Amino acid sequence: MPLLDVRDLAVVFHRKGAVPVRAVDGVSFTVEPGQTVGLVGESGCGKSVTSLAIMGLLPRRGNTVTGEVRFEEADLLTLRPQDLRDRRGRDIGMIFQDPLSSLNPVIPLGLQVAEVLERHRGRTRQAALREAGGLLDAVGIPDPTRRLKEFPHQLSGGMRQRALIAIALACRPRLLIADEPTTALDVTIQAQILTLLKDLVDRSGTALVMITHDLGVVAGLCDTVNVLYAGKVVERAARHDLFAEPRHPYTHGLLQSVPRLDADRGGRLHQIRGSVSDNIPWSEGCAFAPRCDRVIDACIGETVPLEPVRRGGALRCTNPVPQEVAA
Amino acid sequence: MSEALVEIEDLKVHFPIKSGLLFDRTVGHVYAVDGVSLRIRRGETYGLVGESGCGKSTLGRGLLRLVEPTSGRITFDGTDVRSLKGEQMRRFRRRIQMVFQDPLASLDPRQSVESLLVEGLKAHGLHRDKAAVRDRLRSTLDSVGLPASVLNKYPHEFSGGQRQRIGIARALVLGPELIVADEPVSALDVSIQAQVVNLLGDLQDSLGLTYLVIAHDLAVVRHISDTIGVMYLGSLVEEADGDQLYERPLHPYTRALLSAVPIPDPYVEDRRERILLAGDLPSPAAPPSGCRFRTRCPWSQDRCARERPELRVFDDSGQRVACHFAEEIRSGALRMHEVRAELVRPDADSPPDVGAGLIQTRPDLPAP
Ligand SMILES: Nc1ncnc2c1ncn2[C@@H]1O[C@H](COP(=O)(O)OP(=O)(O)OP(=O)(O)O)[C@@H](O)[C@H]1O
Ligand SMILES: Nc1ncnc2c1ncn2[C@@H]1O[C@H](COP(=O)(O)OP(=O)(O)O)[C@@H](O)[C@H]1O
Ligand code: SF4
Ligand code: SF4
Ligand SMILES: [Mg+2]
Ligand SMILES: [Mg+2]
What we know:
heterodimer; A: about 325 residues; alpha/beta; eight-stranded mixed β-sheet; four-stranded antiparallel β-sheet; about 20% strand; B: about 375 residues; Rossmann fold; 12 helices; about 30% helix; globular; disordered C terminus; binds adenosine-5'-triphosphate; binds adenosine-5'-diphosphate; binds iron/sulfur cluster; binds magnesium ion
């Protein structure tokens, strides 16, 4: 049984006098215990809203969330707020792109870690503080006992992200959701944080949902990858399948358009024409159609379903890239 | 080798750190650029990479004298740029234009595209002949792939990629010879990034432009650059032809940087060796003695704390490197050792906290 089972999740934002925005439009995916699952896609495709909806962290007003988010037995979308808060601290941890906004600026780091241990694992203050030092040490913060008394602004971006990881992992959650945790960091610091996450996940058996726009990050980290476009999963595949044989024209185009460090100095890059804003949000058909080279009549006008393909993968496309060409 | 359009010699840009009630006391300096020498050949693309805060943007701005360099020489097409004054400098500015990272922030939201483009022409007194201006705007927009109808629109009406095209058009309208592009694609989505990278390439081919491209994304820089310079804490630590740099990185920092860039290919990722650097970039206000990279260098020796390595030509290939032990590291005679991470404070004026704990690259969860 999957640890997390997201079924047909949809989030609509309403604003007075404006057309409702379907930010997430029927997203389904599962996460097995210990598995690392990627959600990739370009800016605005609904990655963050998906993760906030799963965690119940969307603003209470102004939006409608439908579908199911099963975590073990419970549907997180229908849990009482108190129960959801418990789950959030204890079973599901979350880290964000900007650690400063998720750390309390006026409480020393040690106390922030300790509070989590007290609340969710019933530690005494004393024991919690001792354990907090160990956690900061485990995420590679130098001289952790001295850092316990310090405030978030006294640390660099990379060190803050480590502190946030320590807090998220304090309760040994079974699921960790990371929304662009390295996007704001330099590439050498990103490598440190990704290595740290990979090790922690390997050792503790925590499942990880990795949200990123960076296909390179996904390639090194995720077991399964979900590619999102305009609020929908358009392709899902095991890591090696996705990169070796992308079938959705969007995935295919995206992979061809990234310059690779290990490629020779290139001529022109493949480009996908237009931009995400060319979508026709209210149309029934494929949202990628205005930018797609393989568009046919069947793509426009009717809903294109997400259908299962090879080895647990899935594809939402009426005219996918043929397998031999995709390679 | 073709002629150099730009020659920078021992350029320094130091920012004073002010303190006291009236900020009237100088208590130190940020050594943002601290002795950089490089040449950019006419018609080439020179890519400058390095971690944020290492001085890339300051170098670009110093070159245009948008910040006044502390010392050093800048020669542009034979002209000594730092000796230009008033009117001369203003006329000279036309020849070098800048393109910035955030297309939204660098465009004034209340100005129509037309007035954004005409602004530059006005500054140089090129706006008087209305018909000529219109032709010029049209052809510039055409060259960046935008229709003339965008002239009456405002920046917020465009997508990120289109805004960057407008930013490029604004730089091009004055007919510059050199474009300094500071992170021109890092705010853009991958599919849009490809469009802008291609556009920059096409413009170079058709207009014979020279580029200084500043970016932290090594894959993008490798794709577009003829020559790549790697900066660390205010200095150039290595410079080579792009393919050469990838095939044979000599400086330990370059090696770490290259090994940290994710490659969108699981087969490659699974087999890669990573050189993980300990800790953060030290504060440019309190750079380490000797080699500035020594606090994070897995090959550092005693000598590295005493002597600052000069950027020297390594061999016939012309590759330049600033490391005392480049030969020994390359041959394997010098082995890597573990590095103690030093805590670096985010505020630029506090010195690093030396001698802190060890960064573990394979951390253990504490016992429950
Ligand atoms: N509170 C809100 N009210 C209205 N629309 C919203 C709100 N939050 C997000 N959206 C819209 O929902 C869509 C998806 O946003 P989301 O933040 O999930 O994108 P993302 O994939 O995380 O992008 P990025 O890569 O830029 O972080 C966007 O069109 C966004 O403008
Ligand atoms: N106007 C300024 N005053 C003081 N310090 C500055 C100024 N501009 C840049 N710096 C400092 O100089 C260093 C190099 O900055 P920058 O050139 O912007 O780096 P990069 O572009 O490589 O990220 C940084 O420490 C930065 O904080
Ligand atoms: S459904 Fe049609 S338009 Fe959409 S991606 Fe597939 S081929 Fe292209
Ligand atoms: S000079 Fe010394 S510290 Fe600097 S890069 Fe070379 S080996 Fe490392
Ligand atoms: Mg987001
Ligand atoms: Mg910069």
